[in-house]
Amino acid sequence: MKTSPLLLSLSLVALLMTAGCGSNKPSSGEATNANSSPTQQVFTVAIGGEIGDLNPHNYKSSFPALDLVYEPLVRYLQDGSIAPALAKSWKLSEDGKTLTFQLREGVTFHDGTPFDAEAAKWNLQRWVGTKDHDWLPLANKIKSIATPDKYTLTLQLKEPYYGAIQELALVRPVRFLSPKATDATGKYLKPVGTGPWQVQVDNPTQRAVFTPYQNYWGTKPQLNEVVFDVIPDAQTRVAALMSGQATLIGGDSIGGIPLESVTTLKNDPKVQLLTAPGSTTYFIQTNYDRPPLGDVRVRQAFSYAINREAIASKVFSNLATPAKGIFAPKIPYVNYSNPQLYAYNPEQAKTLLAEAGWKSGKNGILEKNGKPLQLTLIVDGDSSPQAKSMGEVIQAQLREIGVAVDVRLVDSGAWNDALMKKQFDLAINLTWGSPYDPHLSLKQMFHSSSKYAEHGGVYGHPTLDKSIDKVLATKDEKERQNLYVEIQKFMDENVAAIPIVYSNRVYAVSNKVTGFKLAGTEYELDLQEVTKKSQ
């Protein structure tokens, strides 16, 4: 007798829910009951990847899990504005080099240690000026850190840098750990933050359990417990939600929902489906060191050949928007008021390839100097449930203009390795979204001084480098807006990247839940006002 896939999925969910809750000691003196009573409000997040050790100063842990435990000085809101968090106010000096924060008083870490300027300074010193964090521009731009009084923190910058505030809103590595949560050498021991949730159980590969921090300074959670259960398979996560084993699935940082499941979830009366415009952009990254792709006419042709509307419809079930440029419309300073420069036009694509010297060859594939126009597209199969389908549609669209594309579906490790070694022609990539965009994605993906400049995907044009440097340093808001317009125009005309779609944020939550809302960024999880019916 064959086993139903749904029954198999539910069996796996049940196994995951009861296995390996770990024996880690709580981070505070309070105990927790992993088998909570039916009257308790337990909110279970089915997460696709590992939870990690919850060290806020490395890159091995789940973003939303870290966000529950640790807080930033300032926080990103849905509209792209910056709001107070552990800092109640801040001021930038006229020369743009001194950033002064007034910290919130009465805040404590989960172990009772006060959060003050000295604790903040200690945390900053764990990542400022260190090799592990030199990808973050602010880590290299802070000259000194001062604590004039108990609740005043001053950052002296080496040069003006408008991205400082945005980067202080990130989930990692800029959030705050209790100084008592390390050993005498500064080695991380346990997850102790100031956030609304404290860690009771942390089994990095299977489960984490969080309970409300009773002395939290802000809005206190209504739920009794939040559980993160690791369920790698996307369809199994869907089954877990539909069976009631999970309360929440979805979101890029938790684990994407297969789009073929969206209609099912939307029609399920036990489920609430939430969607909103996202801030990340899927784009085709090109290896400019490979001869066909160094020719701007070839890149322009490829951009004309991409039918973005078809990808948004067929691959994303209209839960994505055809991209006009590299950054999503909700990103600050983005302005795409003009018609799309590379609207779908396969005939124009063929004309450009002909101008570049490519002629008809065998089996409809273009040739030049006896060599066929044959390329490899690498796709990170771990990045989203849509990755494979997107690669196949792009393959078919480029085939229509005479380009043979071999799609290689690989895991994240192999994908990164291929980029590092430039062993690819084309790759499906995505921008980092809020609060990284536009400044961080520009600096790291398109500036020749980036630590990723050895990758084939870094455009590295002197004109673009100069504009990026200026936009990051200017103190004039009008000049910054104008510079971003120039940057977007230059990138479009020179096809520094081939944007595909802006993906939506998609979550599915149990209908027993009220008060759930999307956090300011894809990397965070806001559960403070959430309640859940027990039955």
TrEMBL record:
Residue ranges constituting the Solute-binding protein family domain according to the UniProt record: 82-451
CDD domains for this protein: PBP2_NikA
InterPro entries: CntA-like, Peptide/Ni-bd, SBP_5, SBP_5_dom
Signal peptide (from-to): 1-19
UniProtKB keywords: Signal
Alphabetized SUPFAM superfamilies for the sequence: Periplasmic binding protein-like II
UniProt entry tagged with the keyword Transmembrane helix: no
Gene3D superfamilies: Dipeptide-binding Protein, Domain 3, Periplasmic binding protein-like II
Single GO term (MF): peptide transmembrane transporter activity
GO annotation (BP), single: peptide transport
GO CC annotation: ATP-binding cassette (ABC) transporter complex; outer membrane-bounded periplasmic space
Name of the protein in its database record: Nickel ABC transporter, nickel/metallophore periplasmic binding protein
Organism of this sequence: Aerosakkonema funiforme FACHB-1375
Lineage start: Bacteria, Bacillati, Cyanobacteriota, Cyanophyceae, Oscillatoriophycideae
